[in-house]
Amino acid sequence: MTDNAVLQLRAERLARSTRPFLARGNRVIRCQGCLLPKKRCLCATVQPVAARSRFCLVMFDTEPLKPSNTGRLIADILPETTAFLWSRTEPPQALVDLCASDEYQPMVVFPASYAGSERQVLAAPASGKPPLFIMLDGTWTKARKMFRKSPYLDALPVISVDLSRVSAYHLREAHAEDQYCTAEVAIALLDIAGDNLAAKGLGDHFSLFRERYLAGKAHHSARITANSAQNV
Prior knowledge:
The chain is α/β, with parallel strands linked by helices and about 230 residues long. The chain contains six helices and six strands; from the N terminus they run H-E-H-E-H-E-E-E-H-E-H-H. The chain has helices spanning about 5-15, 70-75, 95-100, 140-150, 180-190, 195-230, and strands at about 55-60, 80-85, 105-110, 120, 130-135, 160.
């Protein structure tokens, strides 16, 4: 699997770190492509899919470093995905230019209930230009902060996705039933936009990632428990 935009952003973030980033399970030997334990690597299973829709991930600080991050899965399946680290006062010029591009119809993906009364809220992209889904990738608290404090996104409409099914995402606990992981929301957006093959491809990739991530996590926990028992 070749480097995607999120893996490139991860490398940049690691390069400027002054100390190692220690995520949960940091003692696990991980594949540097999918960030799963090497024995559960899924790099060979990645199958990119063409789509009309475009995704732009605006990621909060250490988000690209986390093995549990699912924004990376979008970039696996949709290689034209872009990714940027969030900044309140100094957004990357490439992000600003992308949001102003005439080639796409940009929109911020966020629950409609948090949009002000003056903000345009969409249920689906309009016909015409390909949609550019701008996703704020971080914990729920961080995503709300990015939404509130990104003036360069304020003029863009908001698209809100209603996912009535219970989330299958158990890597990190959501704060409410309507808060889903980044990949799940992207799957729904692709479906709404008519990119059904891409939605299926990302759905399959997400399911396999979740299965192997949780299997590796369970194995690691069991090993810790066994080691602890031996030391009693």
